[in-house]
Predict the 3D structure of the following.
Amino acid sequence: MNQSMSIGKISQWRPNNITLKPLEDQVIVITGASSGIGLTTARMAAAKGAKVVVAARNEDALQELVDELREKGYAAAWVKADVGREADVNKIAETAIEEFGRFDTWVNNAGVAIFGHAMDVSNEDIKRMFDTNFWGVVYGSKIAVNHFRERGVPGALINVGSLFGDRGTVIQSTYAPSKFAVHGWTESIRMELEKKKAPVSVTLIHPGRIDTPYNEHATSYMEKQPAHRGMIYPPKAVAEAILYSAENPKRDMYIGSQAKALELFGTLLPRITDKLMELVMYPTQHVDRPSKPREESALHQAGYGMHERGTNKGWIRSCSIYVKACKRPILSTVAVTGIGLAAWACAKRKD
């Protein structure tokens, strides 16, 4: 009980009394903005009055998105970029500064996935995934931090992780380490920046299973097509967490109680969690149709764009109650305490 209470208190992190601008006064950079979470976040941010700079590899989708936003009277710019290339990430920042003179929030959202047993996945594919999922975050983080320091105006760096960045899994066993790296990087630089009193709020987003084209874009070494099955959250729940963190310094934001529960159970009951993952994850990461060829995936090339949702099967929630609770400190602490007590009770029964 004491441990779960302390976790709830830690989540109410406030770095160096930083105050962030309201969204309507912000310029927000979003990578991976051509589909899924990034696309939803860009549309939501623009609707709330922010100027948006969207980046991805799919040039046609970006042009379509910016045209859509401008037709509604919103300020937007796009830049074709592969975040696995440092020069491309530099170009994103340059575009934001050329178009709007600055940026106030940088969202490292771009990501790719691989489904397959770790021993079967080629090293070339793993390295390419790390270029996007980890190195893209490193490049973006450094640019954002330097920009906020040079301006001397507080800004938000928001890195999108995963529930599998808190706990390993099967089948996505090469994807999970890339997100572990993102989580470790984010936590480490957060402490260093806080120690140096840098004007940067650093937030780590922990999405659960989200209904996006993530699985359709993934490279699959499986016979059947990757897909989420079970309880799934809408991309707007992640966008809500991202944009809340753009205005309010937050250490972590979990999308769905499943993400927080997996972290807690994995910490308190690691062996039971191993067995549970081995049992549950195999049948819930595919649908009953053949996988598309690996060369058609979005690992080494741009995937299709302008789709917020995927073709997942299960209970697709309309929102994340946990995200809404996290926006209210008392409710957040109560929610985390409840999950912690459940894990503690399981541990006691095991003993």
About this structure: Residues 2-350 form a domain with the Rossmann fold fold (CATH 3.40.50.720). Residues 89 and 140 are 6 Å apart (CA to CA). Confidence is low (pLDDT under 50) at residues 1-11.
